[in-house]
Amino acid sequence: MIKLSLPVKLMIAILGVALFGSFVPTFGVQAFYTVSILFKDALSLLLPFMIFSFVYCGIRSFEENAPIILGILLIAIFTSNFAGAFLSYAVARNILPGILQGATVHHVAAATHIEPLFRLPLSMPIQLSWALLAAIGLGIAASFVDISRFDRRVHQVKSVIKTILTYVFIPLLPIYVVGFLLKMQHENAFGDLFNYYGKVMLLIVGLQGAYLLLLYALAKGFSMRKTGRALKNAMPSYLAAFTSMSSMVALPVSIQTAKRNVPNKPLVNMAMPILANIHLLGAAITLPLLAIATMIIFQGYMPGFVEYSLFTFYLCTTMFAVSGVPGAGIITLIPLLISQFGFSVEMVSIVTTLYLLLEAFGTAMNAMGDGALVIIVNKILRRFGYAE
Fold first, then answer.
1. Over 50: is that where the pLDDT of 363 sits?
2. What does the pLDDT look like over 90-110, one tens digit per residue?
């Protein structure tokens, strides 16, 4: 039996809606849309516990490493993620208005307004920001106080949530997006939107490649010869992550290729697993561009610098929470899109679908970007005398 990857399933779902969605009766559309709404509401119950357990466990794992080296590594990771996010913002402000000129859904008159057949009274039990702050505070406190029993319980919660995400929510994502796409098509908005998003997706892939080139050039002192050699050495990690759609699955290859570029083997062995979890350049490039493009199309609005800076802070902080789960980046950031940018369920559905379609490219960028950042970190450590 052929096992299809998530992007392939999503492509099939999109093509299926585009080709056959108009033949689905209104009741069928309502049924699919109801499933999508229930999916989203059920996920909102799980998100705070996911954020808390994943962030807490990530912080607790750091105590085994040298504090100074870890501190430098974390600063480098956040700097790289922030730089990627603000590069996306600069590109969005200068290029997206031209690409999306005239793109709007406000003029589309929905012949039929689709409503779900029913809804359950499900809502997020606590705010995502409180779960994140609690995880950070308790994670740091646990470094000074022995709470091993609490540690074990949180790790058990993380294991359960990761299993639910991996075997329930992630496989059902294509069904989730079908409901919203059918709703949009029956309200005459489907075709117009994706005509414009094709250009945005090409822009995202191109920007990912440009940022990787810049990162490796920086790591190698802008020497064309050294940069070319480093890129060649790191390319297997890109291919492994692209085909597996998982930085963790590609980690053995990423470590092997990083050692070709960095002589400090202990640093590579320590840093690469951490980088694979929280150095998420793919999300830092992809999500902001998709979010801003969606805001332009739906709201005719682009976030200001201060508003976007706050979004970027939450974006880069939440990256602690998405380790080891393919596609979890967009899932954990859905409440952020709603609270910070006022996204509707239709807007969230579009961004989710397109983000997951680009997941293979984003994951590949993550893995290859890790190899560049570990070169930079090793150079910093050598300068301060912490590496030979």
1. yes
2. 999 999 888 887 666 544 344
Which amino acid, 388? E
- Give which of 197, 206, 195 is closest to 91, Cα–Cα: 206
Q: How confident is the model at residue 373 (pLDDT cuts 50, 70, 90)?
A: very high
The packing angle between helices 6-20 and 170-186, to 10°, is: 20
How many Cα atoms are found within 13 Å in the side-chain-facing hemisphere of 60? 21
Structural domains in the chain, sorted by start: 6-383 (1.10.3860)
Q: Are 59 and 208 in contact (CB under 8 A)?
A: no
Distance between CA atoms of residues 380 and 361, nearest Å: 29
Tell me the per-residue pLDDT of 159-183, one tens digit each, with 9 for 90 and over. Answer: 888 788 778 877 787 887 788 778 8
Give CA separation, 20 vs 37, 222, 379, in Å: 22, 51, 56
Give the whole-angstrom CA distance, residue 83 versus residue 154: 32
| Cα 192 from Cα 134, distance rounded (Å) | 43
Q: State yes or no: pLDDT of 111 exceeds 70.
A: no
Compute CA 118 distance to the chain's CA centroid, rounded to the nearest angstrom: 31
pLDDT level of residue 129 (50, 70, 90 thresholds)? low
Cβ atoms of 39 and 119 within 8 Å: the answer is no
Please, is 61 exposed, middle or buried when counting C-beta atoms within 10 Å of its C-beta (0-12, 13-18, 19+)? middle
Question: By C-alpha distance, which of 349, 343, 345 is closest to 311?
Answer: 343
Say if pTM beats, i.e. exceeds, 0.85. no
Do 127 and 340 meet the contact criterion of CB atoms below 8 Å apart? no
Q: Determine the residue type at 333.
A: L
Token pair in block for residue 48: 């705070």
Whether residue 328 contacts residue 334, with contact meaning beta carbons closer than 8 Å, is answered with no
Measuring CA to CA, which residue among 76, 105, 73, 309 is closest to residue 191? 105
